[in-house]
C-alpha cells in the first residue's frame, strides 16, 4: 500500500515538472519550426486522382485499325488528369454535333498502366452506318479535337474474389477492345488472371481488329494468353475456325471451361446468340460477365420489336416548367430523339443498365428493349423508364430530370 502511494506521488511530481517545462519547450519548437504552413493533403490528392470528376482531354493521335474501326489516343488538357480505371471499363464522352451536346460510351482499349506512365489512353470506335453520332465522329474527330470525359464505368474487369484464375473471353468485332486492355495489363503487372483464352469472332480476316498486335501480345505472354480467331464469312484460304462461337466450339477448344469465368463483349447480336450457348454448357450467371448490351444497329430486326419502321411520332418533353414538342423516329431510341432536338439528357451506358438517363413516361406507349431493361420493378410501377433503350410506339409525353 505504502509503495503504491510512493509511486503515485513520484508520478505527480514528474507530471508537474513536465508541465512547468512546457513553455520553454514550446518556445524552442517555435524557434526551430518551419514558418510556412504545411497545406499538403495527401488523402484529398489521392481522392482527386481516383475521382477526378469531369476530364477535359484532346485527341493526340488517331489510328485506323480496319476500314470501319479507328483508335483515338487522348491526353488530358492542362488542369485535368486521366482517371484511374480497370482494364475492361469504358468512358462516357461528351461532345457536340451542330451545337447539340450528346454523350456516347467508348471502351478503353489501352491498359491502366499506360495511362499512369504516359498520361495517354486509347478509345476505339466502330462506325455504325446511319448512326446519329457514328458518322459524325468518323468525319470530324481529328488530332486536336477536344472532348469532355466522365469517370470510367463498367463491371467487366478482373476481380480475384469473384472470378476464376482462368478467364474465357468471348469477343465480337470491336468488343475485343477491352481484351486488348486486359492482355496488356496482364503482361505488364504479371498479376491475375493467370490465363486468358480469347475466342474472337470476326466476319473475315480483313475485319480482325488488332490482329497483328494481339498475336504479338499473345506470343509475349508465353502461354498465359491464347487467342483463337473464329470467322463467320471466311475467305477461301482461311484454315482457322469458321462459323460462330457455339457451345460445341467452346467445349472443343477450351477443355477446362467448366472452371473458368466468362467475359463477353461485342455487339448486341453476340449477346443474343451466346447466352443460350453458355446455358448449354451450364455456365452459372455468377461466372458470366456480359458487357453492356449497347445500342441496336437495326431495331426492326429485333424479334420482339412491336413497332413499325419509318414512322414518326410527337415527343412532348417536360423539364421543370418547360414544355417542348419534338419529332421522334419509331426506330430510334428516345434518347437519340432528344439529342437530335438539342435536348440531350445525360447518359452513360446507353444500355439501360446504369440508370443515369432515368426519366418518367407521362403518357403514351413505349417499348423497352428486354435485354436492356434495367428499370426496377417499383420504378416501372410509377412510370420510370430508361430512354437510352426505349422506343416510342405512339405520341408520347416524357418528363426528364437532367439535361446536358
Ligand atoms: S444511360 Fe445508362 S440506363 Fe440509360
Describe the structure.
Helix 5 runs parallel beside helix 6 (211-220). The protein is of the alpha/beta class and 404 residues long. The strands form four sheets. A six-stranded antiparallel β-sheet has the order 4-3-6-1-2-5. Strands 10-9-8-7-11-12 form a six-stranded parallel β-sheet, with helices on both faces. It has ten helices and 19 strands. It is globular, with a radius of gyration of 28 Å. It folds into three domains: 47-149, Beta Barrel (Elongation Factor Tu (Ef-tu), domain 3); 166-290, Nucleotide-binding domain of ferredoxin-NADP reductase (FNR) module (Rossmann fold, 3-Layer(aba) Sandwich), CATH 3.40.50; 312-399, Beta-grasp domain (Ubiquitin-like (UB roll), Roll). The model has no long low-confidence stretch (mean pLDDT 90). FE2/S2 (inorganic) cluster binds at residues 347-350, 352-357, 374, 386, 388.
Give the CA-CA distance, first to last residue.
78 Å
Low-confidence stretches: none
Q: Give the overall form.
A: globular
Spell out which ligands are present: FE2/S2 (inorganic) cluster
How helix-rich are the residues, as a percent range? 25-40%
The average pLDDT value, as a whole number, equals 90
Radius of gyration: 28 Å
Briefly note the structural class of the backbone.
alpha/beta
CATH architecture of the largest domain: 3-Layer(aba) Sandwich
Main beta-sheet strand count, sense and barrel state: 6 strands, antiparallel
Q: Can you write the helix and strand succession as a string?
A: HHEEEEHEHEEHEHEEHEHEEEHEEHEEE
Number of helical segments with 4 or more residues: 10
Strand elements, count: 19
CATH topology of the largest domain: Rossmann fold
